[in-house]
Design brief:
Order of helices and strands: HEEEEEEEEEEEEEE
Distance between the termini: 44 Å
Helix content: under 10%
Strand content: over 45%
Shape: globular
Strand order of the largest sheet: 1-4-5-6-7-8-9-10-11-12-13-14
Number of strands: 14
Structural class: mainly beta
Radius of gyration: 21 Å
CATH architecture: Beta Barrel
Number of domains: 1
CATH class: Mainly Beta
CATH superfamily: monomeric porin ompg
Length: 233
């Protein structure tokens, strides 16, 4: 009887601990240092520090991501807040983008002068390839005639491993006219290939280094970005 009771207690304890582990809040803190700030094929600055802080629970996550220029004092400071939910391969959420380039205070939200832009997104991981769609639905995203632009971006991403490096290939396009992306209509704005290799510093710390080639056919620009990521493991 004692053996059976012990087995039952062990099974219940294992089940409870398993549920507790799933219910735990996970946190992440890290930062990238990049030679150029290139986003979706657009050049937003020179050498930059880009910290990130996030918390996640049961598929729900809240993150803060920032960028500050290190080599050019005129580069805008940026702060983005993301609320998202992930289930299976599906992920969706809202991003609040803000930068100080328009000299507007952070808590000023009046359209169209606000420095905030709000974007909704949905993505799905098919395994070999992931697809995502993003659309600005509020904030400072307007056309020259004063109508909301609903600037949108579609991207395919294909991660793979080759020659001891983690690779990530991306294809991104803007489906219609957008001042946000500086295009007059349907345009391919991002063709990129990134390779990452982690250098282990200690049993609890590694230093991932990455190089990225980025081409923007719409603007006829080509970039090579080098960076490193600081994070605890």
């Amino acid at each position: 009887m004692k053996v059976k009771i012990a087995m039952i207690v062990t099974m219940l304890s294992s089940g409870i601990m398993g549920v507790w582990a799933q219910d735990q809040v996970e946190a992440h803190l890290g930062a990238d240092i990049v030679s150029d700030y290139i986003w979706r094929g657009q050049d937003f600055g020179d050498v930059s520090l880009q910290p990130e802080l996030s918390v996640a629970w049961k598929g729900l996550s809240l993150s803060a991501w920032g960028s500050v220029g290190l080599s050019d004092k005129d580069d805008a400071q940026e702060l983005d807040l993301t609320l998202s939910y992930e289930t299976g391969g599906l992920s969706f959420g809202i991003i609040d983008y803000w930068d100080d380039g328009d000299d507007q205070p952070y808590f000023y939200y009046k359209n169209p002068d606000t420095a905030h832009s709000f974007e909704g997104f949905v993505s799905y991981d098919f395994g070999p390839v992931g697809a995502s769609w993003q659309t600005y639905f509020a904030g400072s995203d307007y056309q020259a005639d004063g109508k909301r632009a609903y600037s949108s971006y579609f991207e395919l991403a294909a991660p793979f491993r080759l020659a001891s490096c983690d690779w990530d290939a991306r294809f991104g396009l803007v489906p219609w006219k957008s001042g946000m992306y500086d295009v007059s209509g349907f345009s391919v704005t991002n063709l990129s290939l990134r390779a990452t290799k982690a250098i282990k510093i200690s049993p609890t710390f590694e230093l991932p280094l990455f190089g990225q080639l980025v081409a923007n056919p719409a603007s006829q620009h080509f970039y090579f970005v080098f960076g490193l990521t600081l994070k605890a493991i």
